[in-house]
């Protein structure tokens, strides 16, 4: 991977998202961690030389802000790893899809 790659990882403060952020950073990418968990995301960003943007993916404006922050910081965005969110057991492709329920997480 070229060092110039700019990667945005949602849900990057812990678990799979944190592992993905660490892997990209170790490969030389410039990483933006977007997560609702501010302390964990900020700490990880500092540890791996990334940037942190507090993001609640349920809020459209937060999603716009995380992309804008990556572009402001690094001039572009090359890769997005959409890791944040929760499943609700519904059929995301079918007629029973409930967008409001999908956007709730508790």
Architecture overview:
The chain is an alpha/beta fold. It has one domain (6-103): NAD(P)-binding Rossmann-like Domain (Rossmann fold), CATH 3.40.50. The chain is built from four helices and four strands, in the order βαβαβαβα. The protein has helices at 15-26, 38-48, 60-74, 99-103, and strands at 6-10, 30-35, 51-54, 79-82. The chain has a four-stranded parallel sheet with strand order 3-2-1-4, with helices on both faces.
List the helices and strands and how they pair.
Blueprint: E1 6-10, H1 15-26, E2 30-35, H2 38-48, E3 51-54, H3 60-74, E4 79-82, H4 99-103
Parallel strand pairs: 1-2, 1-4, 2-3
Structure, briefly:
With 106 residues, this protein is an alpha/beta fold.
What would you say the CATH architecture is?
3-Layer(aba) Sandwich
Mind telling me the C-alpha Rg? Answer: 14 Å
Name the average pLDDT: 88
The major beta sheet can be summarized as: 4 strands, parallel
Helix/strand class: alpha/beta
How many structural domains?
1
CATH level 3 topology: Rossmann fold
How much strand content do the residues show? 15-25%
CATH class: Alpha Beta
Q: What order do the SSEs take from the amino end to the carboxyl end, as H and E?
A: EHEHEHEH
State the distance separating the first and last CA atoms.
37 Å
Q: What ranges have pLDDT less than 50 throughout 5 or more consecutive residues?
A: none
Q: Tell the overall outline.
A: globular
**Largest sheet strand order:** 3-2-1-4
Name the CATH superfamily assignment: NAD(P)-binding Rossmann-like Domain
How many H/I helices? 4
How much helical structure, as a percent, in the residues?
Answer: 40-55%
Number of strands: 4
């Amino acid at each position: 991977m070229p060092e110039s790659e700019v990667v945005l990882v949602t849900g990057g403060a812990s678990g799979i998202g944190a592992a993905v952020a660490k892997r990209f950073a170790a490969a030389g990418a410039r990483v933006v961690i977007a997560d609702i968990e501010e302390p964990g995301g900020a700490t990880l960003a500092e540890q791996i030389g990334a940037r942190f943007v507090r993001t609640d993916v349920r809020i459209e404006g937060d999603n716009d802000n995380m992309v804008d922050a990556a572009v402001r910081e690094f001039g572009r965005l090359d890769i997005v790893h959409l890791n944040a969110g929760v499943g609700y057991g519904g059929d995301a492709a079918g007629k029973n899809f409930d967008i409001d329920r999908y956007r709730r997480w508790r």
